Amino acid sequence: MNKVVKNVYEAIDGIANNMTLMVGGFGLCGIPENSILALSKTEIKGLTCISNNAGVDDFGLGLLLKNKQISKMISSYVGENVEFERQLLSGELEVELNPQGTLAERIRAGGAGIPAFFVPAGYGTEVAEGKEVREFDGKMHLMETALKADFAIVKAWKGDTNGNLIYKYTANNFNEVMATAGKITIAEVEELVPAGELDPNCIHTPGIYVQRIFKGENYEKRIEQRTIKTQ
Amino acid sequence: MNKVVKNVYEAIDGIANNMTLMVGGFGLCGIPENSILALSKTEIKGLTCISNNAGVDDFGLGLLLKNKQISKMISSYVGENVEFERQLLSGELEVELNPQGTLAERIRAGGAGIPAFFVPAGYGTEVAEGKEVREFDGKMHLMETALKADFAIVKAWKGDTNGNLIYKYTANNFNEVMATAGKITIAEVEELVPAGELDPNCIHTPGIYVQRIFKGENYEKRIEQRTIKTQ
Amino acid sequence: MALDKNQIAQRIAQEINDGNYVNLGIGIPTLVANYIPSNVNVILQSENGLLGIGPFPTDENVDADLINAGKQTITYVKGAAFFDSSRSFAMIRGGHVDLTILGAFEVSEKGDIASWKVPGKMVKGMGGAMDLVSSAKNIIVAMQHTNKGQSKILKECTLPLTGVNCVKKIVTDIAVLEVTANGFKLLERAPGVSVEEIINSTEGKLIVEGEIPEMKLY
Amino acid sequence: MALDKNQIAQRIAQEINDGNYVNLGIGIPTLVANYIPSNVNVILQSENGLLGIGPFPTDENVDADLINAGKQTITYVKGAAFFDSSRSFAMIRGGHVDLTILGAFEVSEKGDIASWKVPGKMVKGMGGAMDLVSSAKNIIVAMQHTNKGQSKILKECTLPLTGVNCVKKIVTDIAVLEVTANGFKLLERAPGVSVEEIINSTEGKLIVEGEIPEMKLY
Fold this sequence. Notes:
Largest sheet of chain A: 8 strands, mixed
Number of strands of chain C: 15
Largest sheet of chain C: 10 strands, mixed
Structural class of chain C: alpha/beta
Oligomer: heterotetramer
Helix content of chain C: 10-25%
Structural class of chain A: alpha/beta
Number of strands of chain A: 11
Radius of gyration of chain C: 17 Å
Shape of chain A: globular
Distance between the termini of chain A: 54 Å
Strand content of chain C: 25-35%
Number of helices of chain C: 5
Number of helices of chain A: 6
Largest interface: A-C, 56 and 52 residues
Order of helices and strands of chain A: HEHEHEHEHEEEEEHEE
């Protein structure tokens, strides 16, 4: 059992045209920068990307959009990306918008072997179109289905050689849940330690979910809204 | 916002006849000993207890069974308790057995606002009786529904004054998930610290789920199967 | 005189009780945090995975790994907890957040809210708004009463909905309204704004009973 | 000669591959851990919330907060992770555990398993067995071939089922069987046990093709 791969290219090996990828992060926070950059240097096309957001024009998933490597996005909020809108309006890009909590839960369900479940979010809105509606306890709910991916790509703060992961602050976001729902899950981490060095009571992602792990490099960690205290 | 109560009696105040309680623990591991003992000294009767197990004859929920305070158990495994069997056969006690993972997921669903979901466990068995069956991806599933409780009673290792909890090793088990599904959640902890002393990246139960917290006393932590290495 | 954004936030802050767990949406709702009295202990939830938002950081304390749902850099308070998005929305969907405050384009007299999409404008997405409005115990909307003279307090929403039958209270630049089974009940008016002006600015059914007090901003 | 419990465990250990995540049930399956070769790196899952079960503790290291699903005191290995029951079964139900090894009262030729309830005997409950058998990628049953001369390898189970159409392989005291679409395929026989004896002990349809090798126990 050797999960540690040499570099990002070994990590993304096997990702191919028309596959479905989950990509962690919320906005630009906690995104797997190394893997996205490496993917942007390949010829892989036709990707379906499940990611809460679509990056900005020149960073994050925006890099793959610019190269027209993505044919479909499943997201909850995509408002920061001009190229995204252009491709959407021109019909080059398909987009499926999900309520953010429904998106997170669909991914959890994918990882947890639950093919479908009911939530109140979206009832009475266009999100409900085509979905089964059912009343429970006097409240209307939609049936939502699980999401899985060929590859889930996540970014963690610390990881060990068994694939156990710990995320930092709000850089966790969709990473932890996505790690459970990839047929193959790739984890890039800021710090890679031998098994046994992380507190076993404090593991966010147990290693069973991670098939490949590597230490990422040169994290830019770009900030979208640098907001500081006014004295 | 003062969640810290003086003692166990203040903690269980409001628990009344015929209520539904969730009680954490797996076997005798991680059970809320203080709260169970205090309940056993009250006259409260007719309780429905959701708990993976039913304790042993003279410890854990066995104490409430002996007093005939429990009228129904929702559990997955109850094989360690002779008095339990006697009451069940005599018709004094009703029992609903759930597959363990279904039980855990029903509780999670109760805490997470998901009224129903589909799982494969129990299809084709007596657990399926009366339940909706549906095929997803060629596999048969049962629809299971959420569980909630009037009070959830959990035991944690460390807690802070905001109600944040950390569990130790396998003493977590059903505690973390049950904490999310009580209208009122009571946490008894071995160590109670001021808010700010626990690592915010390592909180198992965020304080929002806990309404009352206190430092428990005299933990016996009885072991059911003391198994040691044979040299 | 109509309230400015900060005054709307100031008025909404009065709706928050000690011990509340509150989710503040982007825009005016975010400003509410500035007006919570120091003796009211409130824990702010950020749906990207934090319970216990603190003030904005100093320049030296900015951490790219610590942002709110509006993608702004923040800090966390003592006793905070971080978690992933599925657990964050489990918390929201499960009704554990006491109060959600968010903006809106339109609200209908049935409590429907439209807040995420304007046909013909750039598609942004609903983010967490649909989850929040379908699940919070109490939902207060912060919004402008009118847009270019057109009422946004309507009989029926005209824009794509975010949720139905969910808004409990609305604080606009000129009034505080409660959503009731019979229509919008006028609770308060902005200082210097007449009841007549509010009636004229409200397309949905407005219930005006007795003397309508002026909002107190403190 | 029929295998004893430890030999059944020993034979099953050969089914485990390097890097496997394995859930071992109570009884014979627990013994399998003793026979995993040291060059085969396996991580054992305990459904009460641990990935990385270690050996039983020394007397001084017993910790009441650290038990396996059989309620025995245990230790954990380096690189272990603890989690709650809902996450443990999310892991199981999601198919992340490579192999589940459990005991059974009966197995049918369709791969149905009965392992939790005997009418007339004390009710114990199914614990995690129904979740495990309905979700694991690979399920191996450790059991006695017969009980008081009666076959437990059946056309149809007679006892209440734990799961349907799920068992992949069976290791009994006298044989290794694979569950196929056409019935039980005899793969191996215990040392000194004849094919005829296995045929006579098997009520369900048994497929015997060619020479049936003896199990190798090492």
